[in-house]
Amino acid sequence: MQLNEYQAEARKTEKKVYAEGADNIVPILGLAGEVGELLNEYKKRLRDGSAHLRFGDRVAEELGDILWYVAATATKFGLDLEDVAERNLAKTRARWGAPGEDEDGTLFGPKAHAFDAAFPPEERFPRQFVADFRQWIDGGTVKTKVFVDGVQTGDPLTDNAHRPDGYRFHDVFHLACAAVLGWSPVIRKHLGRKRRSDPTLDEVEDGGRAIVTEEGVSALVFAYAVDHDALGGVRSVEYDLLKAIRIMTSSFEVSVCTTGEWERAILMGYEVWKQVEQNQGGKVELDLDKRTIRYVGM
Question: Which stretches of the chain are DSSP H helices?
């Protein structure tokens, strides 16, 4: 049976709601109630073990009731149940169907994004390079400079905070975006790789708005990381954060990147950030073809 066929048949068994204005809320309340019934059956299984002989049948029945209320809720709000299912699969594939990982950390699956592939070599990201984070004290203030091929990239950074928190090393996150996503207006500017041969793209994708957006994403992720022990031991990032990032970047070329790819950039970036912060600097190696970033020492 197709989902739309089920939805149509389910609608024929719907009973009239007598409470005025309650047509839309009744299916939602029913859905919540049936989920409670399913939990109750599982509670009985935990309590009685194998003695709960009808556990499988009862779960099937409760899931059927949940499905009925899901269909009824979709109908009430003018939604096509098959479309809802397809959109959910697209969302979960983007979140959990991200490329896998070989033993050396290399991504396999979809190829690396190369948004600058059609541009002259001097306007492309280098496919492999090392960024060297060097820290020093200037007038009592701890600052960090980043060098690539012996050349300083960007301005010296401080934490810009009342208490030291390592934000001066946050360029690691921008580097992770470049490595995993193939996108970072900030790093593109720092490396002098803006795509100036296309004035429109240079202004829109590599210009101030894109840079500010990426910095905003960086600040948002940093705040999230602070609340989660610098993502120590974290293997999954909350979907609300990933969704917010997708919304923030929806008007840029990076919008084709999935939530799974963003999650990888965040987790890999903060794994490296922790090592840079612990060592108060050091070298970070990027491979945009393998989509990896790693700390390689002082």
Answer: 3-12, 25-48, 55-76, 81-96, 171-176, 185-190, 199-204, 208-226, 239-248, 259-279
| pLDDT tens string 145-200 | 999 999 999 999 999 888 888 999 999 999 999 999 999 999 999 999 999 999 99
Residue 168 C-alpha from the chain's centroid? 23
Report which secondary-structure segment, H or E, holds 152: strand 151-157
Domain 3-96 is found in CATH 1.10.287.1080: yes
The dihedral through the CA atoms of 92, 97, 98, 101 has a sign that is: positive
What's the maximum distance between 2 C-alpha atoms anywhere in the chain?
Answer: 77
Q: Which two tokens stand for residue 33?
A: 């109630």
CA–CA dist 106, 284 (Å, integer): 16
pTM above 0.90, yes or no: no
Question: Domain coordinates of the chain in residue numbers?
Answer: 3-96, 107-297
